[in-house]
Amino acid sequence: MANKKQSLFQDAFIRFKKDKVAVFSLFVIVTILVACFVVPWFYPDNYFSHIDLYSKLRHHLLSISLALMLIGRDVFVRVLVGGQISFEVAIVATIV
């Protein structure tokens, strides 16, 4: 029986591919990462200066949890910008 030698990376990658939970978790993390960096680019207004005062009138009609704040800022975009900052800090901390 000839056992062919595998590098540590190859062995870890083969074991990783067999674990379905780990592959699914990687997919979820990559999806969140891409959403955090891509979705704010498609936001039509300058996120940090945009305030819609008329949204107070619409707030009761749009009572979705991630829809709008009382001053008209989109909560979902705020969450994604916060995630983007968190990923940037994590990358810098990993590099340092």
Task: Explain the layout of strands and helices.
Elements: H1 8-18, H2 20-38, H3 55-58, H4 75-95
Helix pairs in contact: 2-4
Q: Helicity, in percent?
A: 55-70%
Number of structurally distinct domains = 1
Structural class by SSE content: mainly alpha
Shape, per Cα inertia axes: elongated
The chain-level mean pLDDT equals 78
> Cα distance, first to last residue?
45 Å
Q: How would you sum up the major sheet?
A: none
Count of separate DSSP helical elements: 4
Number of strands: 0
Residue ranges: pLDDT <50 for 5 or more in a row? none
Oligomer designation: single chain
Order of helices and strands: HHHH
Strand percent estimate: under 5%
| Rg over alpha carbons | 21 Å
Written account of the structure:
Helix 2 packs across helix 4. The chain is about 55% helix and about 0% strand. The protein has one domain. It contains 4 helices and no strands. The model has no long low-confidence stretch (mean pLDDT about 80). The longest helix is centred in the last third of the chain and has 21 residues. With about 100 residues, it is mostly helical.
